[in-house]
Structure formats: structure tokens, C-alpha cells
Amino acid sequence: MNEKKCETILNKYNEEKGSIISILQDVQESFGYIPEDVVFWFAEKLNIPASNFFGVTTFYAQFYLKPRGKHIITACCGTACHVKGAEPIINRMRAELGIAEGEDTTTDGQFTLEKLACIGACSIAPVLIVNKKVYGGMSPNKASRMLKEYEKSSPR
Ligand code: FES
């Protein structure tokens, strides 16, 4: 844990009278996710039960309790994408990236693969978003080629 980073956030919180949400936003911004030991550190410093922090992190989808990959792949699993073959694409990417069952991030921290409901681009289904760039009309082979491009740009 980086105590200096935590103290900077705590000072800001004390000066601006922020909320638990604003602390968590700052923690995520600073650490890339919400580390458990950081939550306990703030809970102790502010005399607020840690469960209050964890309650907020689990309620809002914007908070991540585990480190995320350098590249974020979002696979749409809405109806149109599902019908047009989202599942085989996801399975192929999981296999090629070696993401274990029940996990969403590669062990080397390069890729996070997450699923989302309809992203509103059904006309180009099946859709993937990689680092905020939208890829339409995907197939397992196209997804595989796309992954290789990202792997080339940051070798594992
Ligand atoms: S279902 Fe995938 S974009 Fe709408």
C-alpha cells in the first residue's frame, strides 16, 4: 500500500468535506482499482466501518475491487450481438488470452475481458469495444487478429 497516496486523498477529503464516493473515486484514480488494504486504512483513519466503503463499491459498477488490465475489452452480450454470435467470439478470446474460468483479467495484467448488455450499436453486431474503440461485425477470427495487433503493440 502506498500510504503517501492515501494521505494526499485524506487531506483533500478533510479540506473539501468529501463523501465516501469521492474518496473511492480518488483511490481508484490513484491506484487503478480499490485495494482492500486501502479501504481498511481509510476506515480506520475516518472511524467509518469498512463495510460502508465496501457497500458503496459493490453498489456502483464504476468501482473495481481487483486490478484491471492495461487493455479493456468489452464484449456486448445484448440480444442482437448474442444472436449474431457474441458467445463464440468471447470463448475464443478467453482461450487465446488464457483467462481462467471465473476470472476476467490475464495473469500478466495486460487484458481485461468484460461483458456488457447492449451498447446501442446493434446494427453492427456483434460488437466489441477495446480501449474505447468500437469494433463492429466481429467474428472469432477477426477478434483473434485484433488481439494479435494489441499484443504486438504491448508484448506480454
Ligand atoms: S445488442 Fe450488442 S450493440 Fe445492441
Task: Please render the helix and strand layout as text.
Blueprint: H1 3-16, H2 20-31, H3 36-46, H4 50-59, E1 71-76, H5 79-83, H6 86-97, E2 111-116, E3 128-130, E4 133-135, H7 140-153
Parallel strand pairs: 1-2
Antiparallel strand pairs: 1-3, 3-4
Helix pairs in contact: 1-2, 6-7
The protein binds FE2/S2 (inorganic) cluster (FES).
- The CATH topology of the largest domain turns out to be Glutaredoxin
- Strand % is 5-15%
Q: Please give the CATH class of the largest domain.
A: Alpha Beta
- Biggest beta sheet attributes: 4 strands, mixed
Outline the low-pLDDT stretches.
none
What's the overall geometry? elongated
Element-level helix/strand string: HHHHEHHEEEH
Hetero groups in this structure are:
FE2/S2 (inorganic) cluster
* CATH architectural group of the largest domain: 3-Layer(aba) Sandwich
Query: How many individual β-strands?
Result: 4
**Distance separating the two termini:** 25 Å
Radius of gyration based on Cα positions: 19 Å
Mean pLDDT: 92
Helicity, in percent?
A: 40-55%
Category by helix and strand content: alpha+beta
